[in-house]
Amino acid sequence: MKTLLNNNELNEALYGVSNLGFVPTMGSLHKGHISLIKRSLKECSKTIVSIFVNPKQFNNKKDFINYPKNTKKDLSILKDLEVNFVYLPNKNDIYNSKRKTKIKLYKHDKVLCAKYRKGHFEGVIDVMGRLIKIIKPKKVFMGEKDFQQLYLVKKYIKKNKSIIVPCKTIRDINKLALSSRNLLLKKKELNIAGKLIKNLISFKKKLNKDRNIKKALSKKRKEIDKLYKVKIEYLELRSIKNLKVSDKIKNSKIFISYYINKVRLIDNI
Q1: Is residue 30 flagged as an active site residue?
Q2: Options 3.40.50.620, 3.40.50.300, 3.40.47.10, 3.30.1140.32; which CATH number does 2-167 get?
Q3: Per-residue pLDDT tens for 142-197?
Q4: What values do phi and psi take at 155, rounded to 5?
Q5: pTM, full prediction
Q6: Superfamily of domain 180-268
């Protein structure tokens, strides 16, 4: 495994490499990341993993500071997986040039997390566009756990030859979607989050028989508030095709964002 610390080392290492798979991460690797990496290793001749905590996608400075980091452990995991390259850029490597046009989300895309985290997805789209331009991979592997992120990256980053490959959400034994932010939760809080998601999975199975989905979602939100004492930002059924509010289960997902203590979690079911 080659560790690349700047763009000069990256360009030298990747010269002549074709069929390159790319897994972008912010570190604190877990089984969800590992599933993306294994798929890249299987489908591509070479695989590169980036670790970069992007400051521009955090709309809260404390959230950026507190984001879990463990580069030493991450590198050990990547070495065991026999990844070909790991890219550890600094801010200047990524943001060494100004954008010609400012990224602006369409009004109808400012829903779910985009409504509550102003500037977040603009930062995600910006850094993903820059990383893809620098690395020039054939395929980019991204998880469906951050479904809105996946949807917007595919929609707004079009002028490149890289293929965005969606990969299924990996969950723990309690059905909680794996996330680096889970490391910020205590055992009791993790159990609460798991019970909440199990509740929603069961609810969605029954929702298909409910004629008034909007009313059922409102009732479920109040129930979750009472049962688990969490702060819900949104609980909505939306189409996976365009993220519009849906009244049909087919081709739709339940999207949720909630706080346990001060840790913000998202999921889609």
Answers
A1: no
A2: 3.40.50.620
A3: 999 999 999 999 999 987 789 999 999 999 999 999 999 999 999 999 999 999 99
A4: -75, -40
A5: 0.95
A6: Pantoate-beta-alanine ligase, C-terminal domain (3.30.1300.10)
